[in-house]
DNA sequence: CTGAAAGCGCTTACAG
DNA sequence: CTGAAAGCGCTTACAG
């Protein structure tokens, strides 16, 4: 229609040749001035910097990547992102990557089922590496890494393959911590609301919990979702042996448990039944939840993931790099507190 | 340490020359075969495709961007992302961009204050365009667009600059919808919990609300946060004229209002006081909240944002493109329902 | 210290 | 239809 109007002319950005011309030096000198490690005389450098500033020149990172074989782009693959814990992780990864000099190419996929649909895109942009965080993991990560020729670091969850790199919370320890706390508080009838089958998080948290308990807890799958946690809680409470202490494999299911107890059974978490979660997502501090939970610090996990990937990229580490990060229990009001309880890795929420 | 071990050799990916050699054609032919619009004979094409498949060849998108001046990368800038509504938006944008053939370079910044720190990074990677979604907006977007030479589309929030592109919910309409609904339910003492000063969302929602009310509502700032919404609700209820109907500029503040009413005043939203929010984020469907709220469809907003940017990039549109999307009210249990209420843009939650 | 030149992996006129 | 050649914006040995 308004083809006649003056179109928004995409302003062409200056190149190193433009700067060279203006500064009266060679294009190579400009390149050296901008790539730290090159020799440039003091006055040449001054002229170049002045010219670059006037022109608003900044080197084209894409062109550079072509020659030095490093795009400085990292693919971050994240599935099932609706839980706020993953948002915190994503935010932290992005910040850590930027600080380390990398950019984040985002692949937010509906579920990890769809992982295969993105490997072409990931590959086409020649990312230097991949960080993956997803609830379920159906793909052969090792093969994917091989096919793309770049290292992959898994976060929060590991795969049952010998050669993959990962950084996860020490979930077994987390489960034990919860069991010991509940035992000290005098609970007797334990239940575990698991996540989804096959997830290392769900399995290890449950194993640690069970290992520290005198008898086996009841177990119900909660699907790592609010609805799943709600239904699991209902089933447990209507069952033949309602538990007096429920450990949930993730906070979101614990919130659901608290809501189910209140709205379906008129029970209050912390007084009638103890509920403990995992992750310490933001909502756990909300007045309605005030959740006692295991802190798995998305910030340190994210930073380690980036450090590991960095080391792998700089050939300063050899895969597999596999780390389990220490966790601790944050005590709030959703679970009965043992009197005079003192233990390592347990921290009372101050204030309130 | 283990420098002696065989290092993980980064496998070099094949180039168009490798494919050409194997297929017995020129490199140019390979390029043409992969760039739709080029002429390649049927048998040449067959040989090329076979060779490419054997070698696992895919064109280097970064190299291509150099020559055709389109990186097909879009920067998505998102601040204050802790609210789940923004997560949904981010996910939708990413999906829509991928479908349109673009990749997402993520810039998740602590707050929009930090916007300036990322423009260099955004520029260095020669993104084709920018989509911005943030709670506050302190930067001169028009100038930023000018400086980088690429179009910017704002989402959910607009700026008071004549030339910016944006797509937002029709917030004035949303505010009116809420007022009419509350009036029909027989409420008399209205309150508005605003977000932050200067945000178009907060202003327009409040203006629409006020415009449809017979008298001015009380107003308290809630900072678009849980804590802020909680404090605002407390202040209102302890004030000289406790409201019987509270409209919150965003869901997260409405959840806080519901919790504050229950835990601080022993009141139930929907029975004692009506609470209505804005956005229909996932938590609003949780049993504890069951929030009546204005639906501002992050999915359609995201798709439109991508379409607009696309059109701008293809020179099929001239800035500014400014759109306000129709909203509707989703009726759940947190606000009294007028008897026999029927209105356009009001939808009862089915089921339960 | 500095410039000329080659090359990274592509696309695109331009001849044949 | 197809190949040779130039060029995108850089970096990096290599001579001077």
N-to-C span of chain A: 63 Å
Number of discrete helical segments of chain A: 12
CATH superfamily of the largest domain in chain A, by name, is Response regulator
Mean pLDDT of chain A: 91
Total domains of chain A, how many?
A: 3
Largest interface: A-B, 66 and 66 residues
| Main β-sheet description of chain A | 7 strands, mixed
Rg of Cα set of chain A:
26 Å
| pLDDT < 50 stretches of chain A | 1-8
Number of strands of chain A: 13
Helix content class of chain A: 25-40%
Biggest sheet strand line-up of chain A? 7-6-8-9-10-12-13
Q: Can you describe this structure?
A:
The structure is a homodimer of 352-residue chains. The first copy, chain A, is α/β, with parallel strands linked by helices and 352 residues long. The first copy, chain A, has 3 domains: 12-59, 434 Repressor (Amino-terminal Domain); 69-169 and 298-325, 3-Layer(aba) Sandwich (Rossmann fold), CATH 3.40.50; 171-296 and 328-348, Response regulator (Rossmann fold), CATH 3.40.50.2300. In chain A, 39% of the residues lie in helices and 18% in strands. In chain A, the strands form 2 sheets. The first copy, chain A, has a 7-stranded mixed beta sheet with strand order 7-6-8-9-10-12-13, with helices on both faces. The first copy, chain A, has a 6-stranded parallel beta sheet with strand order 2-1-3-4-5-11, sandwiched between helices. In chain A, helix 1 crosses helix 2 (27-34), helix 1 crosses helix 3 and helix 8 runs parallel beside helix 9. Chain A is elongated. The first copy, chain A, starts with 15 loop residues before the first helix and ends with a strand. Residues 1-8 of chain A have low confidence and may be disordered. At the A-B interface, helix 4, helix 5, strand 2, helix 6 and helix 11 of A face helix 4, helix 5, strand 2, helix 6 and helix 11 of B. Strand 2 of chain A pairs antiparallel with strand 2 (103-109) of chain B. The first copy, chain A, binds a DNA duplex (16 and 16 nucleotides) through helix 2 and helix 4.
